[in-house]
């Protein structure tokens, strides 16, 4: 008899029951609520790290997408685009050969000025200055880095240009003025990174060279410079990316002539030619393009510019990898064994040795003097140029200011519209910070706390950050114009410009915050984890509070970058001076773009006055941002001791009382006597050593 089986009935679950069962399984995988939060936070952090890579891919993808139309329809194709000798949008002639050549000569002449100044001033700052003076000089260099590009352009237009006109230049806008200006714009990043490279040279190299009798100058050039040369070259390469991508200053001072480079008419006509570069061509014609073909050609220029920057980054990263893999830096060569001659005469050898020293003593002193002259003169040039810009802005901006201009809201009826531009800039800063702070914080936490050293995702994220940090700002502007305004259908407004500036400042903030997080002692993390805290709790309650001074400094410095940025704002915000009545959806002009528009309208006396008023306002805001960053960084440090208001003024009155007391002058008298006694002892010791040396020679 066959055995019958009863069919099993399958119960169908509702959607709600399925989700309940899913969450039960998820909760069973975690022992408590803390582990679940730790898992979710890890997923969030990894997701934001992937977003950074997606930003780079989206930027590159949109530039390529917007360039395809041009390459498909242009008769000459890609090579005709590169080798064409004429750029004339009205006749559909889009050859960028002369623009590339002009960009190359601007870069070459800029490096002829920037490279020696970078090397000599970096060596003098690290090897000869005391720590106190060194901190002040580096502060001046950082101040030069904070000057916006339009302020550089204004200074070159009104000071450098007329100076070269006295030398025979036909106008204030030419190749030489552009190259010198870009050289000083690229100096801050070159000097800062070169100083870090020289400081990392082991002290044993210096002491060993000095112990062998080499002079300080000889040690600086032959030992220190040679040891740090690789990283100095890397710093110069990053400065090259900065020079190639500059837009706004070049638009103000280059002359903007695509075919204006004169090679066959003599040297003076060559260096005083009116030119345009790849980046300035995009900035000049993007908002006034004559049609889809012209617009796509400008995106194609952006693609070429981006390729140049990527090549520079690949060279830098690959060279660093090759350098790190070299294990034997000093190879020992086997040679013949030394044998002591039987006719060795110690007195004769000593006499020959001292005679050789006396013969070359003068030559060495002259050589060391020339080398020291280059070191100190380069540092003086960098400091003097920075102070000259600041003094010019203060003199023409502050002492020539019409105070009614500060509260004017439009440019009608001879107004300056500074108040409107200030409010637009303020909203721009707020909008950019709303998006940039959380994104940069989470990505920096991933790189510092979660990423393994050999992680492939971490390497990809770091490469994306490196490429984004060296990408010219005009490319960000074209991306914002194509994506946020063209695809997302946002209006030309503060919101569009703020989103674009978020991508601009993102790499800088991630790098700075990551360095702050890595500066926290590993012992604090270990102690927190040993007490049973999760990774998320340790990061939030231990790492972030101890890294807060550096984080606040990074945020404030990024605010200064937003205030001084002009190229992305010019393409995504607009140029009309008006009050931001509609909030973040308002168009308008920032402080920097208003300077650019006034420079286009002409160099009248009123326009120059307003431009310097705007430049003075920008510099005051940036100086306040830098000062606030330094002050808050000190006050938020873990070892900072808070002094009350009463105690602070008590200490000040005590110091003032001591200054006017008799003990102060007695202490100063003792200090001066000690210094003179030390100087006299030093002179006597030198005289005694000279006498003993002369007796030994005899």
What would you say this structure looks like, in words?
Strand 1 (87-88) and strand 2 form a beta hairpin. The protein has helices at 15-28, 33-73, 77-83, 97-127, 131-145, 149-165, 175-199, 203-211, 216-245, 248-253, 267-271, 278-285, 292-325, 346-398, 418-450, 456-470, 473-487, 494-518, 522-530, 535-564, 567-572, 591-601, 605-635, 645-659, 662-697, and strands at 87-88, 93-94. 75% of the residues lie in helices and 1% in strands. The protein folds into 3 domains: 107-275 and 303-322 and 372-399, MetI-like fold, CATH 1.10.3720; 404-642, MetI-like (MetI-like fold, Orthogonal Bundle), CATH 1.10.3720; 646-697. The chain is mostly helical and 698 residues long. The N and C termini lie far apart (132 Å). Strands 1-2 form a two-stranded antiparallel sheet. It has 25 helices and 2 strands. The radius of gyration is 32 Å and the shape is globular. InterPro entries: MetI-like, MetI-like_sf, Phosphate_PstA, Phosphate_PstC, Phosphate_Transport_Permease. Its main location: membrane. The chain crosses the membrane at residues 43-65, 96-125, 137-163, 175-195, 230-254, 296-317, 370-395, 415-448, 460-484, 490-510, 543-564, 576-598, 610-632. Belongs to the binding-protein-dependent transport system permease family. CysTW subfamily. Residues 100-316, 422-629 form the ABC transmembrane type-1 domain.
């Amino acid at each position: 008899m066959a055995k019958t089986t009863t069919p099993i009935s399958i119960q169908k679950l509702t959607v709600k029951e399925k989700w309940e069962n899913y969450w039960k399984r998820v909760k069973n995988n975690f022992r408590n609520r803390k582990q679940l939060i730790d898992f979710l936070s890890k997923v969030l952090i990894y997701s934001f790290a992937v977003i950074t890579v997606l930003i780079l891919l989206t930027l590159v993808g949109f530039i390529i997408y917007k360039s395809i139309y041009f390459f498909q329809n242009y008769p000459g194709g890609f090579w005709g685009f590169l080798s064409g000798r004429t750029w004339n949008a009205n006749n559909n002639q889009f050859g960028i050969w002369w623009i590339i050549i002009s960009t190359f000569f601007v870069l070459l002449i800029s490096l002829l000025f920037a490279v020696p100044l970078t090397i000599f001033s970096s060596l003098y700052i690290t090897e000869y200055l005391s720590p106190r003076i060194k901190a002040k000089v580096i502060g001046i260099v950082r101040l030069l880095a904070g000057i916006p590009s339009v302020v550089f352009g204004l200074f070159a237009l009104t000071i450098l240009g007329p100076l070269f006109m006295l030398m025979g230049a036909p106008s204030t806008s030419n190749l030489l003025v552009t190259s010198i200006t870009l050289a000083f714009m690229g100096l801050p990043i070159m000097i800062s990174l070169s100083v870090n490279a020289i400081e990392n040279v082991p002290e044993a190299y210096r002491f060993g060279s000095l112990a062998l009798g080499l002079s300080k100058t000889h040690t600086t050039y032959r030992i220190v410079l040679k040891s740090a040369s690789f990283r100095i070259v890397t710093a110069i390469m990053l400065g090259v990316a900065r020079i190639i991508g500059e837009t706004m200053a070049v638009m103000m001072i280059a002359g903007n002539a695509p075919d204006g480079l004169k090679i066959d008419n003599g040297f003076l006509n060559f260096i005083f030619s009116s030119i345009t570069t790849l980046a300035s061509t995009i900035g000049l014609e993007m908002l006034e393009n004559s049609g889809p073909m012209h617009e796509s050609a400008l995106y194609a220029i952006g693609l070429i510019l981006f390729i140049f920057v990527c090549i520079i980054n690949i060279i830098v990263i690959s060279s660093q990898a090759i350098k790190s893999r070299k294990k034997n830096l000093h190879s020992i060569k086997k040679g013949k064994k030394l044998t002591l001659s039987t006719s060795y005469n110690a007195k004769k050898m000593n006499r020959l040795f001292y005679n050789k020293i006396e013969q070359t003593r003068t030559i060495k002193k002259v050589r060391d003097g020339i080398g020291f002259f280059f070191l100190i003169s380069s540092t003086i040039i960098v400091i003097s140029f920075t102070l000259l810009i600041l003094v010019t802005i203060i003199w023409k901006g502050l002492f020539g200011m019409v105070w009614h201009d500060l509260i004017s809201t439009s440019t009608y009826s001879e107004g300056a519209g500074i108040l409107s531009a200030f409010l637009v800039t303020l909203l721009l800063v707020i909008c950019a910070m709303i998006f940039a702070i959380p994104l940069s914080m989470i990505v920096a936490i991933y790189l510092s706390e979660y990423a393994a050293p050999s992680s492939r995702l971490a390497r990809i994220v770091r490469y994306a950050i490196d490429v984004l940090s060296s990408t010219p700002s005009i490319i960000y502007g074209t991306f914002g114009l194509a994506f946020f305004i063209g695809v997302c259908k946002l209006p030309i407004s503060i919101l569009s410009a703020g989103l674009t500036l978020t991508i601009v400042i993102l790499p800088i903030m991630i790098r700075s915050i990551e360095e702050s997080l890595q500066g926290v002692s590993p012992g604090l993390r270990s102690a927190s984890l040993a007490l049973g805290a999760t990774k998320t709790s340790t990061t939030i309650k231990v790492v972030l509070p101890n890294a807060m001074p550096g984080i606040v400094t990074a945020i404030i410095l990024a605010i200064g970058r937003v205030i001084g940025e002009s190229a992305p704002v010019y393409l995504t915000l607009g140029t009309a001076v008006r009050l931001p009545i509609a909030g973040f959806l308002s168009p308008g002009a920032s402080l920097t773009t208003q300077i650019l528009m006034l420079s286009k309208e002409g160099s009248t006396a009123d326009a120059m006055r307003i431009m310097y008023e705007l430049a003075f306002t920008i510099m005051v805001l940036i100086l306040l941002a830098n000062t606030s960053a330094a002050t808050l960084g000190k006050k938020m440090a873990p070892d900072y001791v808070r002094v009350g208001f009463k105690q602070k003024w008590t200490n000040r009155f005590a110091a003032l009382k001591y200054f006017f007391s008799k003990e102060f002058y007695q202490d100063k008298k003792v200090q001066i006597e000690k210094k003179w006694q030390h100087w006299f002892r030093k002179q006597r010791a030198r005289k005694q050593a000279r006498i003993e040396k002369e007796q030994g020679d005899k």
